[in-house]
Write a structure and sequence with these properties.
Blueprint: H1 24-36, E1 49-53, E2 56-59, E3 64-67, H2 70-73, H3 82-94, H4 106-118, E4 125-130, H5 133-148, E5 152-156, H6 165-170, E6 188-191, H7 196-199, H8 203-217, E7 223-228, H9 244-254, E8 258-262, E9 286-289, E10 300-305, H10 306-309, H11 325-340, H12 343-364, E11 368-374, E12 377-382, H13 392-404, E13 407-408, E14 410-412, E15 418-421, H14 429-444
Parallel strand pairs: 3-13, 5-6, 5-7, 7-8, 8-9
Antiparallel strand pairs: 1-2, 2-3, 4-10, 9-10, 11-12, 12-15, 14-15
Helix pairs in contact: 3-11, 4-11, 8-9, 12-14, 13-14
The protein binds pyridoxal-5'-phosphate.
The site of pyridoxal-5'-phosphate has 14 residues, from α5.
Length: 446
């Protein structure tokens, strides 16, 4: 039993490419996959992974990659974190499933206590646990509608909230997320947001534009909630201008609109605070967490003011696997790791190493139009020389070069012209510098 735990920890913490990328074993697996996996499920890089530890991913051909994507910000504590593996393994042998809405168990309650403690706001909070980010968004909307008796849901341009029917409607980008998949849920209103690199607006001006749009086209009195990502994820790690989010929150509070922060990508220590809202001086009524919360196991939370969260009648919220004991045990271990390993400070360390390197690259390569982000949630936006016109081809070239040389990079952005960096907080300075050297080579060969 203990034999299975240390296996992946034996991985050498270095980048090492030993075959073509993808290698022969990956290529063989890819052929099998093409025959049986639905074509709508694509993969950014057809490299089949076998093991991982910390910030290193090993593929079936023995190639080792420095992982700057963490499975889209999920492996915040690091791949196969020993505490998470041990907690989940032990829980698996004790109680795998019970269904909290039939017979409850402690792990669910403990995760709710930890979320109440670590989400912003000094008031009584309650939580419902779900399986995925999209399901958390769905439940937050259900709760806000029940609480307010209103139907309208406001979201922002460039938002990403998921792939279910309701959350597709809340997500901005048609391709690939929505095209041909309608009809979509109604009463969703997409307002202009704050994207300083493109709109040049101050936070106050951008907020005035958002608010005016919603007041004119919907009316504040018909809105149940405004759902915002404090730093937009898929949309391109867009950091709103200073003062934007506080102005939105103030308007929501004045109009009885539930202010919901979708922190599914930005939360759980990624930005050097438990939740990114804290950087912007906002205290959301409801906070959503998922991706980084359980070291790779599927669990999500909707945490909010007790009086809002209690607005549903008993039995109105739940789900078969929601708040599963194994995933809950992993989430409890992740909270423990954030404290034990001072991971908030690690996120700040990563920013202090990576951001100057990215700014230095920007000073030498004018295809890098913007460097932005906070903590271990950083991005570069690639443009046609010197301007703001999107350059997705450069992103494709740079990420392909990096993959060939053992660095996993993710793109993002409405125009596909952003490279986002969201490494595990376990990544070392050496690994970061090594990855940057590959990035430098990629820009030189552009
Ligand atoms: C990933 C993501 C979601 C959807 O989460 P899933 O677990 O993929 O359903 C929602 N909102 C944000 C901000 C996300 O990054």
């Amino acid at each position: 039993m203990t034999d299975i735990l240390p296996v992946s920890t034996a991985i050498d913490p270095v980048r090492r490419i030993v075959t073509a990328v993808p290698g022969p074993k990956s290529q063989a697996l890819h052929l099998r996959r093409l025959a049986v996996v639905a074509g709508g499920v694509s993969s950014a890089l057809p490299v089949y992974v076998e093991r991982a530890h910390g910030a290193i991913v090993v593929d079936v051909d023995g190639n080792q990659f420095i992982d700057l994507g963490s499975g889209i910000g999920v492996m915040t504590v690091g791949h196969t974190d020993e505490a998470v593996v041990a907690a989940a393994t032990a829980q698996l042998g004790e109680l795998t499933h019970a269904m909290f809405t039939i017979t409850p168990y402690e792990g669910y309650v403990r995760v709710a206590e930890l979320l109440a403690e670590h989400t912003p706001g000094d008031f009584a909070k309650k939580t419902v646990l779900l399986n995925s980010g999209a399901e958390a968004v769905e439940n937050a909307v259900k709760i806000a509608r029940k609480h307010t008796g209103r139907a309208g849901v406001a979201v922002l341009e460039h938002a990403y909230h998921g792939r279910t029917n309701l959350t597709m409607a809340m997500t901005f980008k048609a391709m690939p997320y929505k095209a041909g998949f309608g009809p979509f849920a109604g009463s969703i209103h997409t307002a202009p947001g704050s994207y300083p690199f493109h709109d040049g607006l101050s936070g106050a001006d951008a907020a005035a534009r958002t608010i005016s749009y919603l007041e004119k086209s919907v009316g504040a009195g018909d809105l149940a909630c405004l759902v915002v990502e404090p730093i937009q994820g898929e949309g391109g790690f867009v950091v709103p201008a200073e003062g934007y989010l506080p102005a939105l929150q103030e308007w929501c509070t004045a109009n009885g609109i539930v202010f919901i922060a979708d922190e599914i990508q930005s939360g759980m220590a990624r930005t050097g605070r438990y939740f990114a809202s804290e950087h912007f001086g906002v205290v959301p009524d409801v906070v959503l967490s998922a991706k980084g919360i359980a070291g790779g196991l599927p669990i999500a939370g909707v945490t909010g003011r007790a009086e809002i969260m209690d607005s549903s009648h008993p039995g109105g919220l739940g789900g078969t696997f929601a708040g599963n004991p194994v995933a809950a045990a992993a989430a409890v271990a992740v909270f423990g790791e954030i404290e034990r390993r001072s991971l908030l400070a690690e996120a700040a360390r990563i920013e202090s190493v990576l951001k100057p390197e990215l700014l230095s690259l920007q000073s030498r390569y004018d295809v890098i139009g913007d460097v932005r982000g906070i903590g271990a949630m950083l991005a570069i936006e690639l443009v046609r020389s010197g301007g703001t016109e999107p350059n997705p081809a450069a992103v494709t070239a740079v990420t392909a070069y990096a993959a060939q040389h053992g660095v996993l990079l993710l793109n993002a952005g409405t125009w596909g012209n952003v490279i986002r960096f969201l490494p595990s907080l376990a990544i070392s300075d050496e690994q970061l510098h090594d990855a940057i050297s590959v990035l430098e080579d990629a820009f030189r060969t552009l």
